[in-house]
């Protein structure tokens, strides 16, 4: 992911695992350790996602940049 978080710019990799039951998808994701670059070097974290059929989804990411 290429992004800026609270004024810190860089990239990091997210790995995800989830399920789809025919009507909605849910799952968890996490920052791959050691994948942060530039000002996001040392980032760690995890989160979740949930999406019912349709255009809306909810994403969360709890993170820390050391």
Note the main attributes of this structure.
66 residues; mainly beta
In short:
The chain is an all-beta fold. It has no helices and six strands. The chain has one domain.
Question: Can you walk me through this structure?
Answer:
With 66 residues, the protein is an all-beta fold. It has one domain (2-65). Helix content is 0%, strand content 62%. It contains no helices and six strands. 8% of the residues are buried. The model has no long low-confidence stretch (mean pLDDT 97).
Break the fold down into its secondary structure elements and pairings.
Layout: E1 2-5, E2 8-11, E3 14-20, E4 24-31, E5 43-52, E6 58-65
Antiparallel strand pairs: 1-2, 3-4, 4-5, 5-6
Secondary structure tally, helices = 0
Mean pLDDT: 97
Please state how the strands of the largest beta sheet are arranged side by side: 3-4-5-6
Structural class: mainly beta
Shape: elongated
Uncertain runs with pLDDT below 50, 5 residues or more?
none
What is the radius of gyration?
13 Å
Q: What is the beta-strand fraction?
A: over 45%
Number of strands: 6
User: How many structural units, i.e. domains?
Assistant: 1
Oligomeric state, counting identical vs distinct chains: single chain
How helical, in percent, are the residues? under 10%
Task: Return the string of H and E elements.
Answer: EEEEEE
| Main pleated-sheet profile | 4 strands, antiparallel
Distance between the termini: 18 Å
